[in-house]
Amino acid sequence: MTTRTLPRPYESSLRRQVLRLALPAVGEQFLNMLVGLTDVYLVGHLTATAVAKLGYGPAEGLAGIGLANYVVWIITTIFMAGAVGTTALIARATGAQEQGEANNILRQSLLLGAVIGIVGGLLMYSTAGAALQLFGAAPDVAALGKRVLHISAVSMPLAGIMFVLNAALRGAGDTKTPLLIMILVNGINMLLSWLLVNGYLGFPTMGVAGAAWGSTISRIIGGIVVVGLLLRGCGALQLDLLPRPHGNTLMRILRVGLPTGAEMLAFQSALVVYARFVTNLGTVPYAAHNTVITAESISFLPGLGFAVAATTLVGQSLGAEDPQRARRSGHEAYIQSAVFMGIMGVLFVIMPEFFLSLLVDDPEVVAAGVLPLRLVGIIQPLLAANFVYAGALRGAGDTRWPLLIKLVSPWLVRVPLAIWLIPLYGLTGAWIAMSIDLAVQGVLALWRFRGSAWERIKV
């Protein structure tokens, strides 16, 4: 395929547009991650008084909340079916300047977010015990995780609505409003969790349950706020009519989004098997594993943010019938993401103890996580490709290829390597397997985007 060279003003404009969309999205993703990060920090720094009252320490608390977060993530993958389809369709409608169609998609997305939130909450509550048993958790850790899941289930309906409506705003090119919503969510979460985990200012000492209630209440408020903003009108989008099911539009959203939901479920099912191997290493290695994942999530932020920019700009460009700009947008988003993530990777390699010590006050846990975090630093450029090019493909509506990647790489690369390497190298072996898998996913996503099949997808 031949592409003409674009003039510098065009390139400069595209670079600024990618940054304008990506930076607020990076901030939003940071704040979204901060909900879990706050919980990990507070539980990882239980006071001596709290430990005496609760009957468990930071290592057990981190293992329990880490397992619960795995299950929460698996459940919320259902939300991806609505969110990705919503972003892709609204981006196309916005690029084609079809505002009435964009608002119609918005109304259907609200209904879809509510339904999948209710389903997700019921699944989380009813399967909490069985899900934790799949991970092979020790009885005391499983009990803590189950309590977290029962509390978190309460927030799922409004969390689903918030998730999908924020995706709608991003599809319309508004990444600032979701950022502001997440600032509110995190402010509430940090305050409530701080008060409830260790029992400050006369509040009860609740440990992991306090962290769960902080997250739950903040997500509920976030869902209410985003609905209120869209009822008034937020940029070009407005919930201007009473939402009523429209079968054709719902099917269009799901046709694009369901492969992404299946992609996440396929990936998470491989993670269940993988995590089972890690839990068998013991409480301290598993606590270190979850702490490294939390630190790693910091490096994810640019990838997630620039993936949002790629999704939005690719979708809008195809809606405006400009596939060349769509291609340039995807590559520009990757370049910028790789720079940011590369810097973070260097820091992880040079000073892993610093990042781990910020999260947990346990020398054994920190020591166990040093080599895994260094491995994370090394693969940052390929991790950026994994995020950004998969996001670009989703913006084009090409959601089946990312699904194929998640079906192939985790099951044929990560799990077999984990079976081989964990007995030899323990936790470090687990992270070698994970790093190779993520690198393979990045290469496959880049290879697909370098082709042209995604330009012809109809949504």
Write a structural description:
This protein has 459 residues and is mostly helical. The protein has one domain (21-456). Helix content is 83%, strand content 0%. It is built from 17 helices and no strands. Helix 13 packs across helix 14. The radius of gyration is 21 Å and the shape is globular.
Number of helices: 17
Q: Please give the share of residues in helix.
A: over 70%
**Distance between the amino and carboxyl termini:** 23 Å
The H-and-E topology, N to C, reads as HHHHHHHHHHHHHHHHH
Tell me the major beta sheet.
none
SS content category: mainly alpha
The backbone outline, from C-alpha atoms, is globular
- Overall number of structural domains: 1
How many strands?
0
What's the alpha carbon Rg, rounded to whole Å? 21 Å
Round the mean pLDDT to the nearest integer and report it. Answer: 87
Please summarize what this structure is.
By secondary structure, the protein is mostly helical.
Topology of helices and strands:
Elements: H1 8-44, H2 48-54, H3 58-95, H4 99-126, H5 128-134, H6 139-152, H7 156-171, H8 176-197, H9 208-232, H10 247-279, H11 283-319, H12 323-350, H13 352-359, H14 363-378, H15 380-395, H16 400-425, H17 427-450
